Amino acid sequence: MEESSWESSISTRQSHLSFPSGRDRETKSASFVELAAIYPAEGNNHIDWRKGMSRILAVLLAIGLGTLFSAGCGYAQDREPQAHAIVGATVVPMDSDAVLQDHTIVIRGDRIVAVGPSADTAVPEGSVVVDGTGRFVVPGLAEMHGHIPSPNQSQEFIDDVLFLYVANGVTTVRGMLGYSGQLSLKDRVLTGANIGPTLYLAGPSFNGGSVSSAEDAERKVRQQAEEGWDLIKIHPGVPLDAYDRMAKTAHELGMRFGGHVPEDVGLLHALESGQETFDHIDGYTVYLGSAEREVSDEDLRTIARKTRDAGAWIV
User: Fold this and answer.
1) What is the pLDDT of residue 78?
2) Does the residue 113 lie in any domain?
């Protein structure tokens, strides 16, 4: 069995960082694929992150990013990716109230192929093994409103931000402040050039300065879809006709959209138009504050039901 070869890379990143103390899956087993960090199972209040970071990152990378390193190492198409195993850990599942004591997790490529009691779970020969004894394995965290660095910022800063996400257990980030050229960062993570979380990126925002007409909105939606952005970010200032054309075109192309509620649009119209997320609650405070009376509990329940019925999320 081989020791992880990633610690030298991780130590390099640590050399100028200081840490504080303290896609839909196709199979059931794959639901564990982005397990992220291992924490001490003892009741310690203090974690020495500098000493523990290599071990934590080895687990992060073995689970969340194993495929990326495999791809970067030029595996032949007919060769199975190297297996990784976390042995003897306490696993915290999301489908049970109980933790799974002394379990072993076997990962091959981007799929977890086995999760079971250590006594009954075979570790493939040649696996990279991480000792999980006395530690918890928890699901990776998802940052649903992150601001990913601009490609114009220094490479060192970009590397640090992406690294710190995974170092703190964040394996997925929904980027909600898009910059031209930012998709290159997503590609760098996918190819293993950067250690970082899976990125879902909104394009440069739709706002009063970038979209002034329905024609602008449609053109911008089609452009962002062609460029490969994952979703559309809405900022204040978008006129109603432009918003409606944006929503119509986005639905036609299968693009999601979310963000703020432009004043001309209003919360109820945004819900009816299929806006998937409301990032910050300013649209809700404006809507509730427009009533010429004190907001009641029933008012809150009503708008909560409308949000649920629309399938929208408040982020």
Assistant:
1) 58
2) yes
For the chain, list the strands marked E by DSSP. Answer: 35-40, 83-91, 100-108, 111-117, 128-131, 135-139, 141-146, 170-175, 198-201, 231-234, 256-259, 277-278, 313-314
What is this structure's pTM? Answer: 0.73
Work out the end-to-end distance of the chain between its first and last CA atoms, rounded to an integer number of angstroms. 43
3-state secondary structure (DSSP) of residue 90: strand
Q: How many domains does the chain have?
A: 2
Instruction: Please give the average per-residue pLDDT across 59-87, as a whole number.
Output: 58
Helix (H, G, I), strand (E, B) or coil at 179: coil
- Output 50 or 222, whichever has higher pLDDT: 222
Same-domain status, 250 and 159: yes
Closest CA to 182 of 140, 152, 138: 152
Query: Is the model's pLDDT at 276 over the cut of 90?
Result: yes
Q: Which two tokens stand for residue 51?
A: 């000493």
Which two tokens mark 298? Answer: 């029933």
Name the residue range of residue 111's domain. Answer: 7-139
* 122 and 156 share one domain: no
pLDDT for the residue 81: 86
| Within a domain: 2 | no
Torsion of CA 189, 195, 199, 204, to 10 degrees: -80
Contacts 24+ apart (CB under 8 A), 2-5: 2/126, 2/127, 2/128, 2/129, 3/128, 3/129, 4/58, 4/61, 4/62, 4/128, 4/130, 5/128
| Nearest to 35, CA basis, from 25, 49, 44 | 25
